[in-house]
What we know:
Layout: H1 14-20, E1 46-49, E2 54-55, E3 62-64, H2 73-76, E4 80-83, E5 92-99, E6 115-121, E7 208-211, E8 219-225, E9 239-240, E10 243-247, E11 250-257, H3 284-287, E12 291-295, E13 310-315, H4 320-332, E14 337-342, H5 345-352, E15 362-365, E16 378-395, E17 401-402, E18 406-407, H6 409-416, H7 427-431, H8 452-457, E19 474-477, H9 483-493, H10 496-502, H11 515-518, E20 533-534, E21 538-539, E22 552-553, H12 554-557, E23 560-561, H13 564-573, E24 579-587, E25 593-598, E26 608-614, H14 615-620, E27 627-629, E28 635-636, H15 640-648, E29 651-652, E30 659-660, E31 674-682, H16 687-701, H17 723-737, E32 854-855, H18 858-866
Parallel strand pairs: 13-14, 13-15, 18-27, 19-23, 19-26
Antiparallel strand pairs: 1-4, 2-3, 4-5, 5-8, 6-7, 6-11, 9-10, 11-12, 15-31, 16-17, 16-26, 16-31, 20-32, 21-22, 24-25, 27-28, 29-30
Helix pairs in contact: 1-18, 6-9, 6-10, 16-17
Amino acid sequence: MIISSGLRIRAVSAALALVAGVGLLAYEPATPTAGAAAGDLTDSAVTLRWSDGIIGADHSTVVEERDPEHFMYDDFDGLEVTVSQTDDIRAQSLDVRWSGWQPTPGSVGSLPGNYMQIMQCWGDEETGPLPENCVWGAPGMSDPGRIEPSVRGRGVEPTDPLAESVPDHYIPPGGGVAEVPFRAADSDEFVWSADIENVFGRWTTNEVRGVRTDDAGDGEAIFTVQDAIDAPYLGCGTPVEGAQADGRDCWLVVVPHGGHRLDGSAIGTGTNALQYADGSPLTPTNWAQRIQVRLDFASVDLTCPTESEQRPTVGSQLAARAVFSWLPELCSADGGAFSYLALSDAEGRRQVASDTPGAAGLAFTYAPVVTGEEGPEVLHAPVAVSGLVIALNIEEPDGTIVRDLRLTPRLVAKLLTQSYRHDVPGGYEAFTGLDEPPAWAVANPTDISADPEFTELNPEAPVRNLGFAAGNALRISGPNPADAFRELWRWIQADAEASAWLAGEPDDHGMVVNPAYEELGLAEPPAPDTVPRDVQACYQNTTQPQIPAPGYCTLDLLFFATSFEDAALRARLGQAGSKTDWDTLAVSPSGTPGWWTEIPPQAPGRRWQLAVTDSASAQLYGLPVASLRNAAGEFVQPGSASLAAAVDSMVPSEIDDVLAIDPEAADPDAYPLAMITYAAVRADQEDDALADYSAMLSYAAGDGQTPGLAAGDLPPGYSPLNDELRAQTLAVAEALVATDDPRDPPGLVPGSDEDGGDEDGAEGNGDGGDEAGGTEAGGPGSTGADDGAPGAGDAPDPAGLAPTGGDDPTDDPSLPPAPDGATGGAGDDQPPAVGDDVPVAQTTPGEPVGPMQYVLLAVLIAGLLGATAGPALLKLGPRFGGAAAVTPR
Length: 889
């Protein structure tokens, strides 16, 4: 099997999908399994005492002892640091906790001393890194509070008692004040501070500039480590010769700033930052106080040479983390080789229903593949249970991490519809007094943290400080469609309060829905499979005539993440992505001076982020998740028990063997957005291919359901299949290799439709032409060529942006054509007939909807990015979207 190193799950680009016209999401399966949730301690967790000295690679050997006579010794004696995981590290988040220290003095808006700085370094495998091996000093970052200016950089402080002992290469070529240059793992060249942004900057660094210690002497930070894909200059996880699974190890370094300045004087605790603890963490005396922890990285290169034919698998990103974990084990087993490419759910269904050579024979999907009487038979095998979640990264100014939040369907609807004043272009200016909010929004809260409905449910949650936590609060992927978004909207529509509010009824405090969204008819089915945006809403500040019209618009303010994982990572890093800062030094696309630039990431202690993501991605980046209100009125978080209860409450979809959410199911223990991912296998393939796919399903239903962190395990964020679902998968696996026709396994119903529906049954598969997707607008449906589900009923097309019906993006010859009959015509949009006594969850045909000012932006983005991005879209780093969405790392 070949697991390509050319694509990456956390570097997925919706633009790549849109260039192809199919809603494609591309990932690199270089790191197959997620780590533990960052807040959990694993078997490889390590706790080190500062007083024990600087410790080497084995977490026990002392490579440098502390000096009890040093003036800083009493500052840190008793300090202990715990890192949640040190083995099998990939690009993920780790929990770093400390205890036994002194509280950070002064007000919560300042860091005079007793705070922690954290960084990632490469270095000697046994003794650890040198200061020049560490990522630190990115310019332009937001401070976590009032700090002494010198702690931000890489300088050697003249007052440092060890300043005279620094090596000669710390002196810049032109002379001057000594500083610690940076040297990449794969280079002998030194990079000085003036040029450091050419290597890493505020968007790509993972340094943590400062985290407070609480009154009990404890502190905590969630640190996001980077591998060689994200940070090639560190090289972490670079393959070790002769060891396929092992990668180059790196180091996590924490540097405490205590109660003394470098000259030996005690720190001041007032408002004068020049009296605070000083000096870069890299300056020699501060560096000598470090605690270093070696991180054993898994290899980022999991290429598996084989003579067997490669079997392509495609489909839902909900399955990505599980599939990435299983592939290396399948690679080492007998049988065929496999590749995996995460696509939109609908495109995965289209491919598996196609008989075009090269089309994938197995697709991971939530909804069934319904091919009709003339299409190939498709069998469905459940492989993973996970959930769509609202993840959070909310930090109190004192450093406390908020882990509990409750959300109702109406609150989520408010977030999705630009109904908070700060989610509308010009809303922030209205907040600061520069302008007036839209008339409809005058009575609406600035943001969710100021919403009385939210504060009544979450009295302990901090109010979002818009001066520090700029940008809108919600990270969400798009414009590519996903079955999970449809289920999110169905959950909202099934709630009486949320549905009434979407229809125009104010909430108990007078807040109303953005009227542009009210016109879309979101209160009633059909549920869209995306989050529409008012792309024509813009803000032009009349007091700044030098800013050209139309100012900034919705898509500048509300940045789309590229995937569920990207949304989670952005929330973890505090990256809103909003391009709403007017920079007179920036250059506009037309070459004139001045343009909108991205706001800086939020600093620790000042983050207020939510993300619509999947449970596995939330676990990967250590994000707590909100409790959502289910149909029984209970607030439930996703977990093994609540996901299992939700599965028990599911009902048949278009076919009996594929279960779907029943939004009205009233099990008080069930998480309302649990989802089963199915492997849909085309049954008319060659025997060798069927045998290989059978082996994959057998593994997925067997060892692949064992929760754990190792390759081959079921990663955190998934709930194991119950016995009934496992039995179904094993039955499909057996049927694929049976001597009888595999298209009719005992006890299973193939993915067909008596009424001859199209590939997605009730969903349709049109480009939104006059007869496709049920609209007369002539613009693209909600999913373009992917799905048309529910046709153009998801979002009308804005005049001047999307082409009229007839320009089918699926004409791209590089893509498998849609199966016969899957055109999304009106005749195909009818659901199959079922008895009244059988509850069926199904999508609803599209219907014409409101004004033509909304679009899912597929065609627009394809036009903007497709001609310029090219291969750069295949490889992204931690900074996603905006200009960086097409920036190779």
